[in-house]
Amino acid sequence: MISEFLNKLASMRIDTKYRDSWITIWTRLYANDPRLEISLWANWNQKLQISKLMLPFVFPIRDRLDGIPGGHVNRPQNGQEFPIVDWTLLNMDDGAKIGIVCPDCYGVDGTLNVLRFTLLRSPVYAWHDPTKLDKNSFYRYTDRGEHRFRFTLMLDLDPEELKRMALSEHRPPICYDWTKGMK
Questions:
Q1: Model confidence pLDDT, tens digit, residues 98-120
Q2: 117-131 residue pLDDT tens
Q3: I want to staple 10 with a disulfide (CB 3.0 to 4.6 A). Which of 18, 29, 148, 162 is the partner?
Q4: Residue 175 domain flag
Q5: pLDDT tens across 2-21, in order?
Q6: d(CA 107, CA 25)
Q7: Alpha helices (runs of H) in the chain, residue ranges in sequence order
Q8: How would you list the strands of the sheet with 50-56, edge to edge?
Q9: Which residues form the domain of 82?
Q10: Structural element, H or E, at residue 141
Q11: What is the distance between the alpha carbons of residues 102 and 149, in angstroms, rounded to a whole number?
Q12: What CATH number does the domain containing 78 carry?
């Protein structure tokens, strides 16, 4: 039954609004391709808020391996946010391994069966708590405007395969047609 589903193309688009911000999410499955692609476009106009993509899973996440510069490291699913580079590998309680390539995301946290990617933060530029903000002053807020994020989910990958997939996301093929004219 799953193979019948994977032999067909499936795509879904979700348009949503949160206060002054708009978000469009595309999910895609391609025929005979085991990847699930998630593309997210956000026009983020919030102030002093954070945006996260939450991915709930049926089974609890036992532990995860996050990509870091020069390698990878085991991280707990305790709700604490950690920096990542390009990918994470989830070891599920049912024995499955779910690899997620995320070349546009740099922070992730999780609890039990939920993984949360930090997408956008909009604090005042160079502001540090506990300094109080003056409501009559002008401030510049970070991460506002248009942003794009890409996620690819696959089963049963190892860290080296995830690293190669992430590298291919950073280096897409360049194609061009160059002619010097016709005689």
A1: 999 999 999 999 999 999 999 99
A2: 999 999 999 888 888
A3: 29
A4: no
A5: 555 555 678 999 999 999 99
A6: 19
A7: 2-6, 159-170
A8: 50-56, 114-121, 107-111, 82-83
A9: 2-124+141-170
A10: none
A11: 8
A12: 2.70.98.30
In the sheet with 71-75, reading across from the earlier edge strand, the strands are: 10-18, 21-29, 36-44, 145-155, 97-101, 87-92, 61-68, 71-75
Q: Does residue 114 form part of some domain?
A: yes
Dist. CA 183–CA 181, nearest whole Å: 7
What tokens does 47 get? 């102030």
Place of tokens 């946010």: 81
CB-CB contact of 69 with 77 (8 Å): no
Number of domains in the chain: 1
Is 135 domain-assigned? no
Q: How far apart are CA 87 and CA 31, in angstroms?
A: 24
- Does residue 176 lie within any of the structural domains? no
CB 146 within 8 A of CB 43: yes
